[in-house]
């Protein structure tokens, strides 16, 4: 009998205190073949960082696919000559999750224990490297957290009473509000996994 994998995904992002334009952007795509999601953090804050992050997001909208390493390398080539950005991409196919990054976008899976995914140092458009891709089979009740460096990554799901009752979008917003630094743009994508 085939497994049924239900995914609830949502995100929240907000700018550094005092700025109207956010240097972080999130992108979430659900299609019949996979779920693709990304956080992009343009270097700096305000208008310049926002323009870089939005340009990177536009590239992803036109060039997403399940080969994360390829997408990141092509995004790096596309962004050459800019101030740069960091990026983290996740992709879910059936009950398999893959994550890759260039720069300090972090990702972890929380359930009975925390599983930290690997990040690769670098900067889109400035200092490209081949990203390490980490893959993991998902389990029932896993929660994936992908977040920018404006979030203190020491949080875990036990800090949020009845977190399983909240949608992923509301959970992302709660974490940004509780663990986000007022001195940086902050972004979070959460993914709740139910397998039956």
Automatic annotation (TrEMBL):
It comes from the Bacteria. Keywords: Plasmid. This is SpoIIE family protein phosphatase. It comes from Flammeovirga kamogawensis. The lineage of its organism: Bacteria, Pseudomonadati, Bacteroidota, Cytophagia, Cytophagales.
